[in-house]
Task: inverse folding
């Protein structure tokens, strides 16, 4: 491709609204352009990378035995009403009316459409198992689109759905996808972890997220420094065992703590370690009040509350509710003397507190020398807190550390969530109807491209892994007015194109401009045709190394094959 | 691919709502499934064909020097307001609000988005010419979606846009696209014509439609039986020369024609040839009244009126307006005595009428022996009528015949329609800003698939041209319970897969079912493993021929290469 007429405009300045490196570099290197908040065009250079990632995904999907199909973006509201998600999904679901005022969703995902396809066309155990996938633009009206194509409102996604006779089959389909995903992200040159995650609004059971490690990631991964344990902090289980001190229980006392509302304030005011404090928070779980207790140095995990209570919706109660139910406000509430109709749940760590501190359910007062099961009772002790760095790993091996991650893939065991609500069944060997057992699997294709840039760049630009690079070789004559340089450059362009994808900088620009653009683009190998062109010698520089080599043009093809590993 | 777990469900019955063959066969062969009116999924077999067509298009686009990019489906309303199309486009444009109540269009085409991209990133003559294309789902809320994917509301389209310094450049870019389109449709095995067409709502000048000949086509092509002339009847010019009879002009008379309102009625009532009658129709062109005259046996072409008057909107006047402006109603209006403020335009054919008949502008009366330029005057004689079968070809060679066509492609010279309204300019050698001269080019990718089926089928199913077939070979063992058949079939499946794309019918179905499905699918070559399997002999049948051949399995690869032309 000749660069003079290739649409690959570079920007020297960092666009002011681009906060993260991948966003900055993708704009500066002319890979993407914004049309509206969270809505982007892929320019030719960006699309070439997107297609490479797409093809890696397609190859791995096909290898796993999945079949590609293509469903529409426009989805009838009726299907979403059948599954119950039309009302549940909220403002992220973009809704559109046709000229007859019929309602449609712009597909953010395709569980409904695929389940309706399958229920019509699959009816025998003989056709199962089956996994179907598509690669397609998806729409989600993000509350806060940002970071360029990392969190956008229209994005390319690979979504797959597996259909099995039973959970054993699902486990196998899930395993295949998990492995295919691992291959995809490995081939894309990403440093990633598959972590246990929460199934969220999708419904379903087991689920893993594929996280690309990056400090700008919006998710936090808790992993063991000594084992393969890794989970999203949202869901990571915490070891239930805590050491209890031998201290003798003292008599309960009430003490004035004027204006001391936070754990830090109270601990400092009373000269106590935060570990002695009992943090009490009032929630509503499906409308019922629940008082949740964790240790002062811990944080409540509301996803865990939801799971423990099997509740659909858990939210923090307001100040007014605290006052009316417990007689006080946040900062001074506590478990002692709580009315019977309020469920009290405590984290395992609370059980080990001796002579602790909690709110007195009276403004500006706390209780000291509080002892669980003596001064208050608890419905049950559960795992209710967020895991923390330094915690023992839940698998008993090593200590927990945190890293930030960008979610690029997600595998779910849906089970019969959709096949039951939408009546997708098959007839087994005995002619009996059984619900199809489903899995759902997604890869953010455009987000993966951004994640690659986050992990592969330096101060000068992108450093593409060869497998996803837009071109293999960037061929740069220093000065096209020099006949020998021009001749060698044209000759190399003609020859190398037969085996490699070559971007040829045939522009009448200064060498400095050409090299700056080249570093920005990040094509794996740069070939500079300069002063020694007359001798047939050119300079070869891999983008990911500092050193340059002088190579005779006759040996160039071999050098390139080595560098590009082909 | 093993058929037992391949999602390719066939239907024995013709779906009741499928009117045309391609729709029926694509449903029956399991290529597509409907989600809503005009909204379809492509099942794996259909997607394979779609991808083949897409790849042919991509190859031809790349060969022509066009660069692929990908723009978003969601387009900000502001861009459409800039171009002026937000209000013009009508209900076909699907509009959507985001959570902040900002308005967006779901892209039916991308002139606005690409023009805004280009104005930001292209500013020098050095970067021109350039042609960009994308292959993407488009959205048009058709008033009457029908014929399956021939006229649907979400469909795959290839759209391309060229950018040039001047019209000479545009002509060259247009020529390249025209040639690329011809190659695409030829490679897809289509019998098509490139016809001159109307530029319609797109704005712009020269334009050709690529029409696949088919009796179900919604467009009518006027073509010469002796030359390469072909045009959409909407636009086809008519030869302006008509023979005038030598008859002596007679005196104008008024005659009673009670209730005789149509041309046929009046001609019969007065015993006149319809060619003697002058058909008079009152239009509003951008609000101004225009009386248009054509010969009784001709039809007015309002697109031509629009062009002659350079009007934005031309519509037939209502009965009340005829009455108030001309003193009578449709059926009895005519050009004699028309007030000066009404423009009178006549088709060339009217000039040759001698002693004609026209409405008397009085209910139930006509005038006879009317002679143009004696009894009424005309602002100008123009080409104002629809071409008809039997007319001489406008290029002077041969006679016009009609055929129906399906529009699969369209090339437009837009000129500066968008670059002027949206301010996309470049600096020329002298540093002077000039508007970029644009072209716009589209191919209906999914529609092309349907058009292929319309032209390639028989009573039993589809007959895919090899270049777009979902598989090369359909391998069918008659009875898998026979060990020798099973053994040969499995061996052939393993071997042939190395060079061909093979669908292997490994289902435990009766041979009749397998052959019926096979004919429906229309894979170019069927290999039947039957009774002579033990001798290593199988039956080969090309889908497009009646004869079967017995071939030894060792010679099979050669036979296939010959049949598939690879």
Result:
């Amino acid at each position: 491709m000749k660069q003079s007429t290739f649409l690959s405009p570079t920007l020297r300045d960092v666009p002011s609204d681009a906060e993260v490196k991948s966003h900055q570099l993708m704009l500066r290197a002319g890979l993407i352009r914004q049309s509206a908040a969270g809505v982007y065009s892929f320019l030719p250079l960006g699309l070439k990378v997107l297609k490479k990632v797409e093809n890696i995904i397609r190859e791995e999907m096909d290898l796993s035995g999945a079949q590609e199909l293509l469903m529409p973006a426009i989805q009838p509201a009726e299907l979403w009403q059948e599954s119950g998600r039309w009302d549940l999904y909220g403002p992220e679901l973009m809704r559109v009316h046709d000229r007859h005022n019929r309602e449609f969703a712009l597909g953010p995902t395709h569980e409904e459409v695929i389940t309706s396809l399958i229920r019509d066309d699959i009816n025998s155990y003989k056709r199962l198992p089956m996994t179907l996938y598509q690669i397609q633009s998806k729409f989600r009206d993000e509350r806060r689109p940002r970071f360029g194509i990392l969190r956008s409102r229209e994005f390319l996604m690979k979504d797959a759905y597996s259909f099995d006779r039973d959970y054993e089959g699902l486990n196998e389909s899930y395993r295949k996808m998990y492995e295919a995903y691992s291959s995809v992200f490995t081939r894309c040159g990403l440093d990633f972890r598959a972590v246990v995650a929460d199934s969220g609004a999708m419904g379903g059971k087991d689920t893993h997220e594929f996280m690309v490690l990056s400090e700008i990631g919006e998710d936090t991964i808790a992993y063991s420094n000594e084992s393969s344990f890794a989970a999203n902090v949202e869901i990571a289980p915490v070891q239930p065992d805590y050491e209890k001190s031998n201290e003798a229980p003292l008599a309960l006392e009430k003490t004035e703590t004027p204006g001391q509302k936070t754990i830090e304030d109270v601990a400092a005011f009373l000269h106590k370690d935060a570990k002695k404090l009992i943090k009490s928070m009032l929630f509503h779980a499906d409308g019922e009040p629940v008082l949740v207790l964790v240790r002062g140095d811990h944080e409540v995990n509301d996803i865990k509350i939801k799971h423990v209570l099997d509740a659909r919706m858990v939210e923090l109660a307001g100040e007014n509710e605290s006052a009316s139910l417990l007689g006080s406000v946040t900062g001074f509430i506590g478990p002692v003397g709580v009315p019977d109709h309020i469920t009290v749940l405590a984290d395992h760590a609370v059980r080990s507190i001796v002579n602790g501190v909690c709110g007195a359910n009276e403004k500006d007062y706390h209780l000291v020398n509080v002892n669980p099961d003596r001064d208050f009772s608890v419905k049950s002790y559960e795992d209710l807190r967020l895991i923390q760095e330094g915690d023992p790993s839940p698998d008993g091996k090593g200590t927990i550390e945190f890293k930030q991650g960008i979610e690029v893939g997600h595998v779910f065991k849906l089970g019969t969530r959709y096949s039951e609500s939408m009546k997708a069944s098959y007839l087994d060997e005995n002619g009996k109807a059984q619900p199809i057992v489903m899995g759902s699997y997604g890869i953010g294709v455009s987000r993966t491209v951004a994640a690659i840039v986050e992990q592969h760049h330096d101060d000068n630009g992108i450093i593409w892994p060869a497998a996803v690079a837009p071109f293999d070789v960037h061929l740069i004559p220093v000065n096209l007015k020099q006949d020998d340089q021009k001749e060698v450059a044209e000759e190399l362009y003609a020859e190398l194109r037969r085996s490699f994808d070559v971007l040829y900088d045939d522009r009448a620009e200064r060498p400095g401009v050409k090299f700056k653009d080249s570093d920005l683009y990040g094509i794996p190998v740069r070939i500079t045709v300069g002063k020694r062109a007359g001798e047939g010698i050119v300079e070869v520089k891999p983008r990911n190394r500092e050193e340059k080599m002088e190579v005779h043009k006759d040996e160039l093809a071999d050098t390139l094959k080595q560098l590009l590993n082909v």
